[in-house]
Amino acid sequence: MRKKVILLIAGQLWRQAFRNKGIFLLTLIIGSLLVYAAISGWSNVAKQNSIRQQFQQAARHDWESNPDKHPHRMAHYGHFAFRPQSSLSFFDMGMESYMGSTVFLEAHKQNSVNFSEAGFSTGLLRFGEISIAMILQVLVPLLIIFLGFSSIAAERENGTLKVLFSQGVTWQELIAGKSLGIIGIVAVLYLPVIIVSIVLWLALIRFDVSAGELFRLLCIAGAYLGYLVIYSLIAVLLSAWSKTARSALVKSIGVWLLFTIVLPRATQAVGAYLYPAPSAIVFHAAIEKDILKEGDSHNPDDPHYKAIKDSLLRAYKVDSVEKLPFNYSGFIMAEGEKISATIYDQHQTQLQQLYARQNSIARYAAFVNPFMAVKYFSMAITGTDYHSYVRFQEQAEQYRYGLAQRMNELQMKYISNKKPGPDDKPYTISNHHWADLPEFQYKPPSLSAVIRQERISLAAFAAWFVLLLVLTRLLSKQLKVV
Fold first, then answer.
1. DSSP string covering 283-340, please?
2. What is the mean pLDDT of the chain?
3. Chain centroid to CA 187
4. CA 105, CA 400: separation in Å to the nearest integer?
C-alpha cells in the first residue's frame, strides 16, 4: 500500500466531514458531554473520598476513645471500614454506584457492604451514568458510524469510485485511507480527553505519581484507542460491503445496537439463567445452619464445646475452668470465631465462583463484541469492577477476624476466670489496648494482577484486530466497484 495515497484519501474524508453541519454539531455535542463528564466525575470522586476518609477517621477516633472495658464488649462494639474510590474512577464509574461503601465489623458476624448509590436512587440508574468511559464506549462509536457509513457506499452510488480505481487506487488503500480519516476526526475529541484526564488524575492524587498508576492510565488510553480503531474499521468495511449509503447506515446502526444494548443484556441474562445465585436470605440461612452443626459457643452445655472444655481440663490437670492459666471464655470465643469465619469463607468462595461462572458468559462474549472487551478492561484498570469490590470485602473480613481474635486474646490474657461478686466491679482492661489495633487500610490489586485477570479481554482485542485485517484482505479481492 502507498502511504501517500492513503493520506490523500484520509485528508479528503476529513474535509468532507467538517463541511457537514450535522457531523460538526454531533462532534460538538459529544465534546461538551465529555467535558461535563470529566468535571462532574472528578468532583464526585474527590467529594466521596473526602467524606469516606473523614468518617474513617471519626470511626477510628470513636474506637480509641472508648473507656476501660471488657474486651468482648469491645469486640461487639465493633468498627467500620470504608471503601475508598480509585483515583481513576472519575474516568470510568463502572460498578461504583452498585458497590457498597461501608461495612460494620463485629465479632461472630460477617456483615455485607452497604450504602451503595443504587440503594438510594431510582430505577433510572439502570440506564447508566454519564462518564468519560460511557461516552467513549457508546456515543463516540455512534459518531464513527455517521462518519463511516457513506465513506465508500456514497462514492459507489455517485460513480466516483470508478474514477478512484481508474487512477490505480486499490481496495486496501481505500479502506485504510477512509479508516485513517475517521480516526483522525475522532482524535480531535479523543486526544484532549486523554490530556484532560491526566491533568484531573494528577490533581486527585496531588501529583504523587507512581509508575504503576501512570501505566494504568496509559493502558486505558491504549485500550480505548484500539476500541475506536476497531469501530472505524467496522464502519468502513460495512460501507464497502453495501451497495448504497442507506443500507450501510442501517447495517451500522444495527451493529451498534447489537454491540452496546442487545448482547450485553442478553449475555448477563443467559449467565444468570444458567447459574442461578441464591438470595441473601438463603445464603445467610445456609451459613447459620452449618455453624449450628458445629455448635454454639455461647451455650456451656453444647457437646462440641463441652468436649473442648474436658480436653483442656485434662491437659492442664485441673478440675475446673477457674484454675486454668488463661480465661476460658476468651478461648471458647476464639474457637467459635475461627469456626464461624471458616464456614463463612467457604460459602463466600462458593458464591464468588458462581458469580464468576455467570460473568464468564459476558466475558467470552468479548470475542464477538468489542464493547464487552473494552468495558471489562476499563473497569478493571480503573478499580471499579466486581473484583475490586470482592477484594475490599475480603480485606475487610480479614481485618474483622483479626479484630475479634485480638479482643479474644486480650480476654484470655487479662480477664480472670473467677466471676466477680455482686459488689465487685465488672472486669475491664485499660483502654490503651484499643490503640494497639492497626487501622484498616485497603490495598488495591497490582497492575500485573489486573492484567492477568483481564487476559480474556486482551485476547479478544487481539482477535478483533486479526479478524478485521483478514476481512479487509478477503473483501478487497471480492468487492466490486459498481
1. HHHHHHHHHHHH--TT-TT-HHHHHHHHHHHHHHT-SSGGGSSS-HHHHHHHHHHHHH
2. 90
3. 27
4. 5
Residues 35-50, mean pLDDT to the nearest whole number: 91
Mean pLDDT of 376-383: 95
**DSSP three-state, residue 241:** helix
The pLDDT value given to residue 275: 94
* pTM, full prediction: 0.90
Decide: 89 and 199 in contact? Cβ < 8 Å. Answer: no
d(CA 104, CA 70): 20
Give the three cell numbers for residue 328.
Answer: 476460658
- C-alpha closest to that of 298 among 115, 107, 145: 107
Cβ 52 vs Cβ 28: under 8 Å:
no
Best CA proximity match to 10, nearest among 164, 173, 168: 173
| C-beta separation of 67 from 426 below 8 A | no
pLDDT at 77 over 50: yes
Least confident piece of the model among 80-84, 167-171, 358-362, 409-413: 167-171
The residues near 54 (Cβ < 8 Å, ≥ 6 apart) are none
Q: Structural domain tally of the chain?
A: 1
By CB atoms closer than 10 A (0-12, 13-18, 19+), residue 28 is exposed
Instruction: Report the C-alpha gap between 297 and 70 in whole angstroms.
Output: 18
Q: Tell me, what's the pLDDT at 120?
A: 57
DSSP 110: E
- φ, ψ at 105 (rounded to 5°): -105, 120
Domain that holds residue 151: 3-418+426-478
Determine contact, residues 441/136, Cβ cutoff 8 Å.
no
Pairing state between β 79-82 and 102-106: antiparallel
pLDDT tens across 80-126, in order? 999 999 989 999 998 888 888 999 999 988 898 987 776 555 554 55
Q: Give the model's pLDDT for residue 139.
A: 93
C-alpha cell at 163: 474514477
**Which residues are paired to 104 by β-bridges?**
80
Residue type, 347: H
Cα 311 to the center of its chain, rounded Å: 48
